[in-house]
Amino acid sequence: MTHETVAVVIVTFNRADLLVGMLDALAQQTHPPDAVFVIDNASSDHTAQVLGRNDLPLRITTMPENLGGAGGFHLGVQQAYEAGFDRIWLVDDDVVPAPDCLATLMAQDEACLMSVREDTHGHLVEKAATRFDLRNPLAIKPKTGMVETEFGTRAAMPERVEIQNVAFEGFMVRRDVIDTIGFPDPSYFIFYDDVDFAVRARRAGYRIWAVRDAVLVRQLDFDQQHDLAGWKGFYMFRNLFVVHFRYGENLLVRLKPYLIALAVVLLSPVRGGRAEARNVIRAIGSARGMRRVPEPPPHRR
Fold this sequence. Notes:
Distance between the termini: 20 Å
Radius of gyration: 19 Å
Number of helices: 10
Largest sheet: 9 strands, mixed
Order of helices and strands: EHEHEHEEHEEEHEEHHEHHH
Helix content: 25-40%
């Protein structure tokens, strides 16, 4: 295998203190990245000062407005792709890779790879799906199995685990995948852009592997799953619905968003309240406008 170049893509928004940990860890990698593309989504904190360092090959784009994680990763991956890098490693601003994480991934001769996340206490928190079911209309959520629940600990994992979706928190992709399926879809704004990319990659014939020894530490807890009445709830509902509309493998699965929306509205007096009901109604309407899978753009090699 010839030497491959690798670019890191980081999207950040008002998390300068977490970003420091991410950049410090990148600077300590035993396999140094060839470039680090940072998309700053119009941060108003001291992110600009944090990025004023010269120990990394930083290429910084400061946006005039917040593109969301999806828009940021779309732009960053496009920049890295057009700059000619062989592999692109997508990481969030709140994760800290172990010193050998990048080297471990680069040693794998595969097109799609996922680091395996743990929390700050060393507990396995890898939520990438081992089963992502878009065939069964009775599965409320398509993710019916994940690395964390299937194995419990990193030690119990085999060296590689085939997975069916990813998070853009340690996902590595070769440029030939982008040649085939295009870039991450910016229209998701936040949530499910990584799921969408993984579904497209798998449908194009690529396999995705979680690599046990590629350790990534997540500095924050997973705490956003219950905010369905807030502004994030709209995107959670809408983007879940988009994945069903686009990739549902039969009519019943493609109709499932309407049943979920109806159930949320009916249960709103005793569960999520009017705000959650409003979110899900808006989400259905918006998701209907995103049903078409974006065409891969023509790429310059």
